[in-house]
Amino acid sequence: MKKATFLIVLLIVLSLVFSGMLLAQAKKGGAIAATAASVWDYLKKEGYAKNWKMWPGTTSMYQGPEPHGAFLTTYVNDAALKSINVKKGKFSDGAIIAQDNFSKDKKLKFISVMYKVKGYNAKDGDWFWAQYKLDGRVEAEGKVDECIKCHVAQKGNDYVYTSKLK
Ligand code: HEC
Predict the structure, then answer these.
(1) Which residues line ligand 1 (CB under 6 A)?
(2) What digits encode the pLDDT tens for the residues 85-109?
(3) Which of 112, 113, 121, 148 has most ligand 1 atoms within 8 Å of its beta carbon, as the pocket-test mutant?
(4) 45: CA distance to ligand 1 center in Å?
(5) Confidence label for 30 from pLDDT (cuts 50, 70 and 90)
(6) Which atom of ligand 1 is nearest to the CA of 139?
(7) Are 73 and 60 in contact (CB under 8 A)?
(8) Do the beta carbons of residue 112 and residue 128 sit within 8 Å?
(9) φ/ψ (deg, to 5) at 49
(10) What is the pLDDT of residues 36-89, one digit of tens each?
(11) Is the peptide bond before 56 cis (omega within 30 degrees of 0)?
(12) How far is CA 70 from the centre of its chain?
């Protein structure tokens, strides 16, 4: 009888540990699937434009070069912020950059996103690319040639333009 009780207790403890591990995994950035829909859900849930920091050194609605819009606001999640601040030249797995793209008359037109997913596209920096209309309609997603063709000019800076990572 005692042995059976012991086994039951062991089973309970093990299942608690296991579900704890699953929960910890789900909380990591890496747990977001590399699809436009799941990244959009995550951005909404996070309230990125309210709760995320702006890219260090940038302000709200700075004047940006084409093609993204006349005015830009660039937000970064915690993983991306850390990567920028440590100056190691690369973003870590789970880093997300979400850039609001405004027209000349300061209307929000698009949201352009880069999401670092280890192993997703090693030859082009492991970035998942997406661009959305305001209602979440997807303009582009995935390993988007059009995005990569231009951003590859910044290959030595992990494909980003906004500031030096080293
Ligand atoms: C013709 C060149 C060009 C193309 C095409 C392009 N970008 Fe960019 N992108 C830029 C430049 C230049 C910046 C810097 C703007 C700034 O000052 O933040 C930028 C900035 C960004 C940023 C902010 C991070 C960074 O690089 O500084 C994101 C996110 C982004 N682009 C996503 C995209 C996505 C997604 C696509 C494809 C749908 C795309 N870009 C296509 C030139 C381009």
Answers:
(1) 64-65, 67-68, 72, 74, 97, 99, 112-114, 129-131, 140, 144, 146-147, 150-151, 160-162
(2) 999 999 999 999 999 999 999 999 9
(3) 112
(4) 23
(5) very low
(6) 38
(7) yes
(8) no
(9) -75, -15
(10) 999 999 999 999 999 999 999 999 999 988 899 999 999 999 999 999 999 999
(11) no
(12) 23
The class of domain 33-157 in CATH terms is: alpha beta
Distance CA 25, CA 47 (A): 21
Which residue among 59, 96, 147 has the greatest number of ligand 1 atoms within 8 angstroms of its CB, and so is best to mutate? 147
Q: What is the pTM of this model?
A: 0.87
Tracing tokens 């950035």 back to the chain, one arrives at 29
Domain boundaries along the sequence of the chain: 1-31, 33-157
Residue nearest to atom 24 of ligand 1 (CA): 160
30 Cα: distance to centroid of ligand 1 (angstroms): 22
